[in-house]
Design a protein that fits this description.
By secondary structure, this protein is mostly beta strands. It is 10% helix and 43% strand. A twelve-stranded mixed β-sheet has the order 7-8-9-10-11-1-2-3-4-5-6-12, with no helix packed on it. The longest helix has 22 residues.
């Protein structure tokens, strides 16, 4: 029996819906440009019995690419890094034995954009800690190379995890060993308040008390979601 017009319409709608869902799941996500989050960075090959280098780093970040501002609190070392690309300045505040030391330098570059890897391949959707995530993989080349596995929450686009893994075997099945993992918690989409990018209150006297870096050499980039985010 031939299908009625109504039946054909319903079938077409269902097909169109699932086609769009499939395309959305496998299309590269648009990386967020304004948010705050807590991030744990685990170095799997570091000796956990030793104090240095640390095997676990804990950060809290406020990221505003649209306004050219970034702040990171290093919970494991009691340091604060502030990048004011909008004012061409950057600060590093260190705290040791109760003493507070502030350094300042000129920022000579533009704020780096978030970079989604063009060679990332969608693998599947899976549930991580109660959240539906799309899993992507950037494949390394050969044994000893590095795979990067990225988890992005679906459909919000929130950052969840990125993990670099050393390739130990390719055939007959691919085997990898984790090297470093960036786990993102309490991710919040929003434009952080401008006050978040001011110097901390324990820098008494404000910017004039900060020591200028020789020749304004600046401070190293902070990579907080592998090399896809740096500031």
């Amino acid at each position: 029996m031939p299908c009625s017009r109504e039946t054909s319409t319903i079938v077409g709608f269902v097909f169109f819906f699932f086609l769009n869902t499939c395309i959305a799941a496998t299309s590269p996500p648009k990386l967020p440009t304004q948010f705050s989050a807590k991030i744990n960075i685990t170095a799997h090959n570091v000796d956990r019995e030793k104090d240095y280098p640390p095997w676990l780093k804990k950060l809290e970040v406020w990221y505003d690419f649209d306004s050219g501002r970034f702040r990171a609190e290093f919970k494991h070392t009691s340091r604060t890094a502030i990048r004011r690309y909008d004012k061409s300045k950057e600060f590093l505040v260190s705290r040791v034995d109760g003493a507070v030391h502030c350094q300042v330098s000129k920022l000579k570059d533009q704020m780096p954009e978030p970079e989604w890897p063009q060679d990332a391949v969608f693998e599947e959707s899976e549930v991580m800690e109660g959240r539906v995530c799309n899993r992507w993989r950037v494949e390394g080349s050969g044994v000893g190379g590095v795979d990067v596995v990225i988890h992005i929450e679906e459909p919000s686009g929130a950052l969840v995890r990125v993990q670099a893994e050393t390739i130990e075997q390719i055939e007959p099945v691919r085997l990898t060993r984790p090297d470093i993992t960036y786990d993102v918690y309490k991710f919040r989409f929003h434009s952080p308040s401008a006050s978040k990018f001011n110097l901390p209150k324990d820098v008494k006297g404000g910017e004039v008390t900060c020591e200028r870096q020789p020749n304004d050499i600046g401070f190293p980039y902070i990579h907080f979601f592998h090399y896809y985010y740096r500031a």
